[in-house]
Design goal:
Strand content: 35-45%
Distance between the termini: 28 Å
Number of helices: 3
CATH class: Alpha Beta
CATH architecture: 2-Layer Sandwich
Order of helices and strands: EHHEEEEH
Number of strands: 5
Number of domains: 1
Helix content: 25-40%
Shape: globular
CATH superfamily: RelE-like
Largest sheet: 5 strands, mixed
CATH topology: YaeB-like fold
Length: 84
């Protein structure tokens, strides 16, 4: 399994979400990338992995696959009603 790393932007975004009461653990993000409920094509070569987070939300993870790692670009919550 490839190593998963986070951009500075992704780290800042996780802190921002936490301050707004949306606490996401890094292991949940890793699980989202490794075993997503759904994957969509993103900008360029990027992909967007999606996994149910709670009753009303999904977590969407934008990432790039490299030869030796998966680089998480950003993370954002979405309403299940919009993305499912």
């Amino acid at each position: 399994m490839r190593r998963i790393s986070f951009t500075k932007h992704a780290d800042v975004k996780l802190e921002l979400l936490k301050r707004h009461g949306f606490c996401v653990e890094q292991n949940f993000i890793e699980n989202c990338v490794n075993a997503p409920d759904k994957v969509e094509k993103g900008y360029g070569e990027r992909k967007i992995a999606q996994k149910v987070f709670d009753e009303g939300h999904v977590l969407r993870v934008v990432y790039e696959e490299k030869a030796d790692e998966i680089l998480v670009i950003t993370v954002y919550p979405g309403r299940r009603s919009r993305y499912e």
